[in-house]
Design brief:
With 324 residues, the protein is α+β, with helices and mostly antiparallel strands. The chain folds into three domains: 115 residues; 107 residues, D-amino Acid Aminotransferase, Chain A, domain 1; 66 residues, Dna Ligase, domain 1. The protein contains eight helices and 18 strands. The strands form five sheets. Strands 16-15-14-17-18 form a five-stranded antiparallel β-sheet. A four-stranded parallel β-sheet has the order 2-1-6-7, with helices on one face. α1 crosses α8.
Length: 324
């Protein structure tokens, strides 16, 4: 039977479409499923026969079936949570959700010959800014002096001692998500000692010494390939975080310095990742500074619309290499 690539993502993930098209164009068999389809419209039937050392069987979806023995690569994008039937009690829902997650997730994790981009366990382990910063530093990359604290006193002292360069507050996650039904995002922003309130004591906060910025850079890594894009904010803009002025940015493809490439390859190997998208500050002196924003499942499609960066092709190539 022909080898298969399993694409695990949401039905309306338009970023996955060009990669799927690339895979099909290479003559590969592609099966696309969403974890959210399970168990309502996605059926698994897997058998462990003693002596074979592996599960055999199939996944059957509304539009495509896949023989598990043919899966050679898995692209784990951004699937929805498992979709449990709404007619259950709260206790039943909690139990069914846990069982479904462990059952389907465990089966996928047990695929012995699959090349993952990336394995969800690796994504979860890598998605912690404090760990990223420490490992990046250990890999020889430049990082800013940082403070992780819930102490208002320590935060004020950090801001005071770095008042000449300035201090940035960075959220450790994307923000609260929604408030009163409306999307809410937190951006990196400058902060001074007199702006630190006792509210800092209520959760963890990350503060960093502000790095002089000539421009920002987005670095996408796919296997051994790297794609860097310079991101310039509008002239006169005081935005610290370029995402806050996303509709007014200018993009230019640039080269990655050898020292950054070497350190990044080492960091990717340490985190056991195949794919990542990370954000950098490049100083007027040309020093690339890793600011602790490495997303193991970060977006890239909007960059392909702006500049010539064949990231979709590189992802397809990475998945396809195990099928040849």
């Amino acid at each position: 039977m022909r080898p298969s690539v399993l694409v695990v993502t949401r039905d309306k993930d338009i970023s996955a479409d060009p990669v799927v098209a690339q895979l099909i164009g290479r003559g590969l068999q592609v099966a696309r499923f969403d974890v959210g389809d399970f168990p309502e419209s996605l059926t698994q039937a897997a058998y462990l026969i003693p002596g074979r050392g592996r599960w055999t069987g199939s996944l059957k979806g509304a539009h495509r079936d896949v023989d598990l023995s043919t899966v050679r690569a898995v692209w784990y994008r951004k699937p929805a949570p498992v979709g449990i039937h709404p007619g259950m009690t709260e206790t039943e829902t909690q139990w069914a959700t846990a069982e479904a997650t462990a059952g389907l997730g465990g089966l996928l994790a047990a695929l012995p010959d699959a090349h993952w981009v990336n394995h969800p366990d690796r994504n979860k382990a890598a998605d912690h800014k404090p760990r990223q910063l420490a490992l990046a530093d250990a890999c020889g990359l430049t990082v800013p002096e940082s403070l992780l604290t819930n102490s208002p006193e320590r935060a004020r002292a950090f801001c005071h001692s770095n008042r000449e360069t300035g201090v940035i507050y960075k959220p450790l996650t994307g923000g609260p998500g929604r408030q009163s039904g409306e999307p809410v995002a937190l951006w990196a922003s400058t902060v001074t000692a007199d702006q630190i309130t006792e509210g800092v004591a209520r959760t963890a906060h990350l503060f960093q010494v502000r790095v002089p910025c000539a421009y920002a850079a987005r670095l996408t890594v796919v296997g051994r390939q790297m794609f860097a894009v310079r991101i310039d904010t509008p002239t006169g803009s005081s935005a610290v975080d370029w995402r806050s002025v996303h509709d007014h940015l200018a993009y230019t493809r640039i080269d990655v310095p050898d020292s950054v490439a070497d350190g990044m390859h080492q960091l990717m190997q340490t985190l056991q990742l195949v794919y990542s998208a990370s954000d950098w500050i490049v100083t007027p002196d040309g020093v690339w500074t890793f600011i602790g924003d490495l997303n193991p499942n970060g977006q890239w499609a909007w960059l392909e619309q702006q500049v010539d960066v064949p990231i979709s092709e590189a992802i397809a190539e990475e998945l396809a290499k195990e099928c040849c």
